Predict the 3D structure of the following.
Amino acid sequence: MKLYKVLAVVLNSREMRDAHRILTLFSKQQGKIRVMAHGVTKPTSRKRGAVQPFSVTDFLLRQGRDMDSISECEGREFFPGLWTDLDKLLYAGHIAELVDALTMDGNPHESLFVNIMNTLRELDKTADPELVARWFELRLMALLGYLPDLTGCVNCGGEVNGLKVNFSAQAGGLVCASCAFGVESVSCNRGTVAVMDTLLNWDIDKINRLRVTQPARSQMYSIMREYLQWHMEKQSRSMQFMDKLNSFSSVHK
Ligand SMILES: [Zn+2]
């Protein structure tokens, strides 16, 4: 049986019988792949840390008839900060869910791999995990060819004026007042669009300098929820969960 090496981020790990797991990896060399991990949940397994979600790990994989499996693995980065902060853990799960839902198996994308790794590193140490998640969502959309148009009206090319503007997930960006008739759109402040534009243009290690108001955060969340849902063709599970947490905390304030 042929063996080969990949460097990969573990996106998720699904439990099977007999302490086996099926891991979804996003690898530098082959993009998204699913592999079998035999016996890794046994307390004695040396592989446990290396196969835990969000770890960056060197894998030696063995080609199989139905599914390749892990022969050896060695964890490189584990991001302990994600496991001691519920918000960070939720956002890491959200990032993994988006990558899994929006990429195809066996389609290499090295720049996406690097961006996932950098996002997890930033999430691990940031004081503002929400903004890191928004940065990643926008970067992911741009890398996959779904870059939203935030300059003019995506429909007619005209100027989008006023302090309140409309973002249409379906159209793929801002729409002017006349084009907003007849398409579903989210109304937001121009300042929110400016923040999104900054996130799109800045590297992730700079975004901790940004100060973003609460209204802009809620509007960005609504816009990205609609936009991601449109491209995923379903609601994000992690965002549904965040909605529930948000409504719970606003009732109990
Ligand atoms: Zn228009």
Q: What stands out?
A: Residues 149 and 173 are 4 Å apart (CA to CA). The first strand starts at residue 3 and ends at 15.
